[in-house]
């Protein structure tokens, strides 16, 4: 049956446009009652409902109570198309979770396309709001199911917290109940009560605190349009949880500082907020104080400190007047053991220091003390010091390595669940081999001296190299990259999952793959055990590393050797080795040094960060030793040719697809970002020029030259500080950005092509490159620049979260390594704050804070003994001067006294400061 609706629309030019919308209705849509999607005899007992029944939740129940719906006892649930559509429109994360449980056959959730069923379709009434229309759609579908179930003496139960919808349903003879009433009466699952999301009025509040009332969305939109308010994302400081910054939308906008509880006004990290600027005489500066949440959970910025800041030239400062969009998610942490465990109201402390405590109700406190748990925020009323939330699930015992790994993965939103069956169905068989017809399409490069050079233990090898000399004296150099796009076709479940994950995440003891292991470690990995499909970038060069020609091709290769950096270095250095692979490596190494020197001359930066590698016990997988990673010539050799390939591919795809090329840019940081670096260098008599990346690179090179009274490691520290002055590099669509430059590499154009096994960006680039050389066809999403930019935004987020997760994994393993140990070690001060210094310990790649306002036992000694000079990057503590880059000796120990934030403690040993240093 066909329903048609005709709309007459007047265009800007004054023409009348006739739009016909057709809606097809069918009488053969499966209602799920055949025993395949839903059980014939629902087993969930409920004291409120005497008969067997099926559950039909409305949209708000799905949006607010997904933790209840995901519980294992919740079965035989009918999800209407109306609810799916509204959920998708209002919350992408909830929609994804809803799709996941509807695809789980064990859950017995059935999606009914009620808007296309002739039995449940209803026309919209005149002046009926879309919300009322959707509610009526849901009630009509509930009535339809009641009629279908009447012969079986079963019922359809409408779950809704909307009072008007509930009352109308009861008037129409339907069985409608609130989620709270339904869950409270479920037999045998009392823990479900803890999972209920609470409304604002559901819990008592503390009227001793009163936050400013948030303005309505309409007022915020009017204020933003007029320029009175600024809109942007709130980023809470990692060092001070009572301070944040908002970067307003629009080019040339300056960051706005937000300080203190009242000015933050219940905004949580990453919320989209509306900010009102304060008068200029109230502008402030970011605090120099490090607030340690584990020791000072209720600390505020002191009035005297705030006044000190105002006396200086402040930066734009404002206050939050409303929330445009909440970014609340589930948070990992622990239940505070305040009061009696028999109480039902408790405080939850998140592991993420930038998130406030959350008040929850739970009847399981005795079981949950000492456990890592997950809690979701539901609301934050004006008269409550803390937001209100509900318990989601327990993860395991605090301090257990598996539990802590779960925490860091959840906290950084790393998708780590096993790949779904739909994804696995996209894979070829494990014994797949290259078909003859595919071999005929490709260049056969199996005879070349191709090899791979990677870190120890690497199984996802996605790049190989070769070099051979031609008879005319020129050199043929090739970079060969795993052809992952041969196996991952656009639009498949495998492609969608890889796009969502964005990147492989490398933790100290495990790898969270972007694609299934059959591809990442077998069929796509360019190991030296057989033929592999590759995408090759081949240059003809002279001996001065100048490119004569470049070409790209789909190929089949056979690696002659899979080596570590150390093994490749040994071959290069061993004069007795003269096989084709070794000769090729020596040639590549020579060219790489020329390429690097040329890049440096052009202004490319060589920046440092402390990296460590853990050695783990083969049985317990606990860290037993750690070392700082050593860099060899072969590391640089591989890096140079990957950079060159990425630049060559970027030029090609941007030339062929000027509006939709996937590129990577590194914005130039403003000069003010370098103030800390420049001041720190001056304390050692070093002058850094920061006008261009080339001048900065030359200045950093100059700082490496030996000088009196300057420790040689200071040049490394300067490079580490320089890294922290930079913006992050980001992926973008070429049609939506005019500045393509990569500041750190001093490259006019750049992309990622060389790691498609572990980065989805490279898969997108491979598809563009294949289309540009006629090796594959284009498709609509490949040429849609808005769609490409959305994917790039997700990739930027996933890349950033992967970096944070990796750092958190190093921190966790460092803590485990130092359990039960107390070690004195050399370190260097890299940052001086008003109440502390941050120290880097090169041997362990470890950075930590030495507090100067407390003694070695953690007791506060105040700041009256401290004289801080920000411009000189120094502090005097009890008459002892500490400056940036000073060499110190610190005592390293593991502190488990705070069960939530177990950490590495650093105590000053040398120089000796009375009342502060450890004995």
From TrEMBL:
GO cellular component: cytoplasmic exosome (RNase complex); nuclear exosome (RNase complex)
CDD domains reported in the protein's UniProt record: PIN_Rrp44-like
GO-annotated biological processes: nuclear mRNA surveillance of mRNA 3'-end processing; rRNA catabolic process; rRNA processing
Cofactor(s) required, per the database record: Mg(2+)
First and last residue of the signal peptide: none
Keyword terms of this UniProt record: Cytoplasm, Exonuclease, Exosome, Hydrolase, Nuclease, Nucleus, RNA-binding, rRNA processing
One Pfam entry name: Rrp44_CSD1
Subcellular location: Cytoplasm; Nucleus
Main location: cytoplasm
Protein family (similarity comment): Belongs to the RNR ribonuclease family.
The protein's name in its UniProt record: Protein DIS3 homolog
Organism of this sequence: Phallusia mammillata
Gene field: Dis3
């Amino acid at each position: 049956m066909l329903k048609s609706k005709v709309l007459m629309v007047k265009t800007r030019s004054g023409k009348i446009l006739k739009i016909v919308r057709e809606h097809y209705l069918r009488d053969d849509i499966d209602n799920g009652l055949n025993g395949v999607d839903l059980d014939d005899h629902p087993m969930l007992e409920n004291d409120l409902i005497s008969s067997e029944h099926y559950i039909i939740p409305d949209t708000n129940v799905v949006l607010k109570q997904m933790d209840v719906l995901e519980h294992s006892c919740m079965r035989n649930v009918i999800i209407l198309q109306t609810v799916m559509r509204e959920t998708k429109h209002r919350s992408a994360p909830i929609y994804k979770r809803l799709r996941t449980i509807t695809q789980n056959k064990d859950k017995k959730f059935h999606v009914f396309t009620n808007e296309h069923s002739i039995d449940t379709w209803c026309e919209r009434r005149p002046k009926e709001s879309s919300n009322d229309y959707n509610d009526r759609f849901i009630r009509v579908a509930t009535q339809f199911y009641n009629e279908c179930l009447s012969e079986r003496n079963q019922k359809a139960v409408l779950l809704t917290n909307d009072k008007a919808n509930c009352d109308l349903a009861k008037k129409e003879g339907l069985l409608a109940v609130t989620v709270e009433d339904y869950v409270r009466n479920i037999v045998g699952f009392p823990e479900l009560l803890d999972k209920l999301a609470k409304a604002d009025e559901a819990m008592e509040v503390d009227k001793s605190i009163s936050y400013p009332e948030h303005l309505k969305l309409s007022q915020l939109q009017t204020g933003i349009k007029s320029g009175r308010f600024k809109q942007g994302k709130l980023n809470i400081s990692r060092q001070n949880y009572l301070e944040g910054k908002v970067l307003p939308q629009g080019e040339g906008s300056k960051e706005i500082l937000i300080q203190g509880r009242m000015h933050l006004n219940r905004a949580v990290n990453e919320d989209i907020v509306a900010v009102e600027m304060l008068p200029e005489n109230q502008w402030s500066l970011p605090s120099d104080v490090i607030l340690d949440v584990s020791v000072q959970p209720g600390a505020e910025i002191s009035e005297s400190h705030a006044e000190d800041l105002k006396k200086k030239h402040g930066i734009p400062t404002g206050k939050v007047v409303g929330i445009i969009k909440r970014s609340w998610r589930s948070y990992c942490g622990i239940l505070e053991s305040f009061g009696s465990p028999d109480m039902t109201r408790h405080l939850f402390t998140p592991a993420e220091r930038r998130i406030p405590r959350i008040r929850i109700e739970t009847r399981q406190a005795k079981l949950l003390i000492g456990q890592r748990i997950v809690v979701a925020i539901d609301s934050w009323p004006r008269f409550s010091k803390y937001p209100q939330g509900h318990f989601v699930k327990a993860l395991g015992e605090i301090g257990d390595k598996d539990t802590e790994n779960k925490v860091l993965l959840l906290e950084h939103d790393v998708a780590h669940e096993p790949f779904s069956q739909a994804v696995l169905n996209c894979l070829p068989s494990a014994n797949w081999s290259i078909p003859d017809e595919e071999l005929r399409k490709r260049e056969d490069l199996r005879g070349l001296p191709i090899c791979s050079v990677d870190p120890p233990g690497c199984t996802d090898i996605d790049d190989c190299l070769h070099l051979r000399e031609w008879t005319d004296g020129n050199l043929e150099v090739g970079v060969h990259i795993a052809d992952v796009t041969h196996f991952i076709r656009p639009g498949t479940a495998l492609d969608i999952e890889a796009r969502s994950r964005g990147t492989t995440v490398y933790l100290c003891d495990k790898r969270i793959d972007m694609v299934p292991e059959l591809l990442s470690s077998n069929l796509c990995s360019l190991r030296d055990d057989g033929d592999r499909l590759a995408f090759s970038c081949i240059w003809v060069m002279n001996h001065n590393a100048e490119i004569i020609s470049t070409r790209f091709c789909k190929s089949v290769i056979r690696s002659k050797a899979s080596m570590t950096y150390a093994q490749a270095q040994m071959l290069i250095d061993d004069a007795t080795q003269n096989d084709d692979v070794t000769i090729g490596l020596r040639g590549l190494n020579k060219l790489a040094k020329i390429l690097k020197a040329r890049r440096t001359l052009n202004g490319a930066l060589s920046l440092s960060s402390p990296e460590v590698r853990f050695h783990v016990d083969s049985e317990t997988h606990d860290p037993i030793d750690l070392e700082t990673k050593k860099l060899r010539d072969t590391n640089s050799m591989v890096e140079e040719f990957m950079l060159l390939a990425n630049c060559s591919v970027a030029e090609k795809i941007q030339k062929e697809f000027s509006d939709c090329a996937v590129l990577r840019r590194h914005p130039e940081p403003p000069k003010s970002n370098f103030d800390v670096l420049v001041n720190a260098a001056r304390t050692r008599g070093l002058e850094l020029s920061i006008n261009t990346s080339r001048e900065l690179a030359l200045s950093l090179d100059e700082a490496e030259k030996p000088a009196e009274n300057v420790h040689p490691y200071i040049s490394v520290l300067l490079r580490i500080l320089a890294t922290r002055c930079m913006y992050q590099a980001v992926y973008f669509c070429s049609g939506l950005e005019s500045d393509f430059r990569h500041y750190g590499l001093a490259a006019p154009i750049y992309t990622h092509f060389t790691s498609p096994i572990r980065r989805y960006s490279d898969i997108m680039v491979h598809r563009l490159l294949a289309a540009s050389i006629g090796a594959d066809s284009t498709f609509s999403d490949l040429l849609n620049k808005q769609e490409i930019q959305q994917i790039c935004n997700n990739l930027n987020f996933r890349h950033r979260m992967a970096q944070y997760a990796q750092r958190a994994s190093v921190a966790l393993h460092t803590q485990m390594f130092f359990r039960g140990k107390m070690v004195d070690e050399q370190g260097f001060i890299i940052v001086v704050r008003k109440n502390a210094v941050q120290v880097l310990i090169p041997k362990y790649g470890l950075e930590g804070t030495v507090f100067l306002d407390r003694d070695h036992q953690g007791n506060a000694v105040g700041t009256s003994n401290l004289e801080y000079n920000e411009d000189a990057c120094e502090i005097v503590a009890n008459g002892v001067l500490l400056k940036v880059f000073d060499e110190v000796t610190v005592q390293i120990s593991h502190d488990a006294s705070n069960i939530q934030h177990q950490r590495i403690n650093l105590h000053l040993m040398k120089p000796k400061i009375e009342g502060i240093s450890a004995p």
